[in-house]
Structure formats: C-alpha cells, structure tokens
Amino acid sequence: MQNIKVGLLGFGTIGTGVVRAFQKNPGLLASRLGARLELVRIADLDTTTDRGVQVAPGLLTDDAHTLLNDPEIQIIIELIGGYEPARTFVLQAIRNGKHIVTANKALLAKHGEEIFRAAEEAGVNVMFEAAVGGGIPVISAIKENLGANDFSAVYGILNGTCNYVLTRMDEEGEDFADVLVEAQRHGYAEADPTFDVEGIDTAHKLALLISLCFGTKVDFDQIYTEGISRVTALDIEYARDFGYKLKLLAIGKRDGEQIEARVHPTMIPANYSLSSISGVFNSIRLVGDFSGPVMLSGYGAGMLATASAVMGDVLAVARDLRTNTSIRVPAMGCPQSQLKSCTIKPMDQLVTSYYLRFNVKDQPGVLAQIAGILGKYDISIESMIQPHRHEAEAVPIVFMTHVAEERSVAAAVAEINRLDVIQEEALLIRIEENLE
Predict the structure, then answer these.
(1) How far apart are CA 418 and CA 414, in angstroms?
(2) How far apart are CA 375 and CA 372, in angstroms?
(3) 370 and 420 together in one domain
(4) Using DSSP, how many helices (H) and how many strands (E) does the chain show?
C-alpha cells in the first residue's frame, strides 16, 4: 500500500488534535484513502511541554526546515497561526513542491493572493477548510457542491468567543466584562481577546468567504470591522423587547457592481434561524441563485472540530496524490486569472434601519432635542423606549429608526453627541431585516 508522508508545523491545541486523529484512526484513514497517511515530522519551538499525546522519539523538532526541505514529505500542515513566520514557511514549502493544508485565516486574508498564485504556478494545492467555521464544511461546499451557484449573499456567525459572550449576556443578563472573564476561565477566550471581541477574527474569515462566493480579490483592510465591547446587557434586553437577537454578524452582499463587506454587532429578527445559534457554535448562511438559502452550522472552533477539518483537507490532497491528479479544485474555486477585482461599498452609503441608544441627563426637553436633530437629517423614528423618570444621574433613551442612509445617521449621532445633556457616546447598532 502506498505511503503518503505528512509534516506538521505547529504543535499547539489544533496540532495536538491533528496528532490524535493520525493516531486514533489510522486504519479508517487508510481504508478511505486506499493508502497510508504517515505523520513523519512535527516542528514546534516548544519541544518539552506535555500535550497529552505521545509521539515517537525523533518525531518532534524545533527546526521547521527539516520538514520544509525533506523531499519525502508531500503534504505540510501549517498550524502556526499569524502572519510570520507562517507566510515564509508556506511559500518555502510551495517552492519545494509540497501541498499545503492550513487553518490560518489571518495569513490567507492578508497574503492569500500571493500564496495562491505561488501554489498555482508550482502545481500544488492550498487547502484551508479549517480556516473558516472550524468543523463546518463550508469551503468545500462553496467550491464544489454549490459551485454552479451565483451567490448573492453570505452571512456568518463566525466567532465562537463572541457568540458565547452574547449568548451569556442574553440568558443571564450579565455585562460584557463579566462574561468575558468567564469565557477566559472556560478557555473560550484568549488571554488577549482583542482579535475575537473586536471582530478582527471574523473579518479574516469574511474576506475568504467573499472571495470564494463572489470570485473576487478582497482587500482585508477595506472590510468594515466593529466589535462587541460596547454592547451592554441592557442593549440585548431592549433588542429582545423589539423582537430581535443581537449577534456579531459577518455580511457579504452583492449590491449592483459593488459588494457590501462588513462585520459588526447586528440585530436580526428573533424568529430567523441564525438567531438560534448559541454558545460557541458558528453558522454560515449562503444564498445562491439555484440552491436558494443554505445554512451550515456546527462547532466553529476547538481542538477536535478544527482537527476534523484539517484531516478532511489532508485526505482530499492525498486522494489527488494517489491518482496523480494535480490541482483538481483551485484554492479559491477558480483559477487566479479568473478572480476579478471588486469595489467595496463605502459604509456611509449603507442603507438600513438602526438601533440608537443615548445615555442622557434626566431632565425635561432632552427627548425633543434628540428627536429634532434626527428629524433634521431625515431620520424617521419607528419606535422608542424611554424609562420613567427617576433619580439616576443618567438614563437611556432608545430609538429604532426606519430605513436611513448611514452617512445621515452618523452625522446626526455626531451632532447629538455634542449636546451637553449627553453623558456618554451614543451606541449605534445596525439592523438586518432580510437575510435572503
């Protein structure tokens, strides 16, 4: 039986899961592949920490070049994360004719075009199912099973940390800071959670989804990105009162010749299927012209779910190697020459409805002042919540608007923020009513 040799860069949480997959199911993998998958070398700077799995003597090294330059290794799994040295290692492996499997969404969102072009020229695969949605098979679905569709939209709850935090705030009425500490204690959030809670991780994943769905090159830096750190339990309570759930939503939509590309806290109707995605689960909703809406859900992160996606890619590459097939499916679903440049729609041209919360001094005439400025910018109020008068220093006033243009709403909010009755910067949350 043919042996296909694999090298692993990165022996952290996901790398440990991958090693477990190699060790637990070798017979299953061989029977499904018709060849043996052999993990022959692991590289990590830390060669002493106990990961809870035993590896053969000599398998683990701190020198990545022993993998990258080994002519017998055909597949490199990159699980280092970040931009460097991951980029340098991946490009070196490609130059050496090795196929790449990675979970590194940040790397591909920032340097994907360079990496995919190098792989195409070298005639090797770059597979990245684990980069978006953990164990959810969304990348292969877009490239293959749904490949005949012209997509009009993609929506995603793509970060388990944020979804866990928002779910706990909703269910327990706790505030952001307290729930974040709890998430860190349970291992759902990193010690430095910035990439997660400020939406950066989600934006990395959205960049890949937009490229795949719309056949475009996307500049990651053009994706509007806003996190959940200013959302309070009160906002979630008011959203519920208005019939909405609050999610950190990734949105990619065709709008004529432009594409909307944005990540931000979003209110969606409580009866929508995406509203029911709770805890650390992720979900992606695709809208194709033939398939209609398709929704995929599952664990969006974690050792075993992500390792499952990595191993699926390893099997896909190994099947190509076994049949002497070069690149059966291009990395982005089409040759690099077929990817088109796109224009990202400026956020100030967005047209939607809004939730606006102002914390104000509890005194007469405040409501009239705010409503007057909103009217000045042609922003129509659909509904409002104003608590009864009490002795608190500041009270919230909440408005739900009819559809308005973002530039008008932003200008109105900026003017209102300058009023001396405003106690803190207003909170603006966009509402997404139609996910078709």
Answers:
(1) 7
(2) 5
(3) yes
(4) 14, 20
Q: By residue range, what is the domain housing residue 221?
A: 139-300
Question: Are 295 and 408 members of one domain?
Answer: no
Q: Which of 71, 123, 65 minimizes the C-alpha distance to 89?
A: 65
pLDDT string in tens for the chain (436-residue length): 789 999 999 999 899 999 999 999 888 989 998 889 999 999 999 998 998 899 988 899 999 999 999 999 999 999 999 999 999 999 999 999 999 999 999 999 999 999 999 999 999 999 999 999 989 999 999 999 999 999 999 999 999 999 999 999 999 888 888 888 888 887 777 778 889 999 999 999 999 999 999 999 888 889 999 999 999 999 999 999 999 999 999 999 998 889 999 999 999 999 999 999 998 899 999 999 999 999 999 998 888 999 999 999 999 999 999 988 777 888 788 888 888 888 999 999 999 999 999 998 878 888 889 999 999 999 999 998 876 555 557 888 999 999 999 999 999 999 999 998 898 899 999 999 987 6
Active site residue 205: yes
Which one from 98, 105, 110, 205 is the annotated catalytic residue?
Answer: 205
Are 192 and 291 found together in one domain?
yes
Please check whether residue 324 lies inside any domain of the structure: yes
How many domains does the structure of the chain reveal? 3
Q: Is residue 99 domain-shared with residue 88, that is, in the same domain?
A: yes
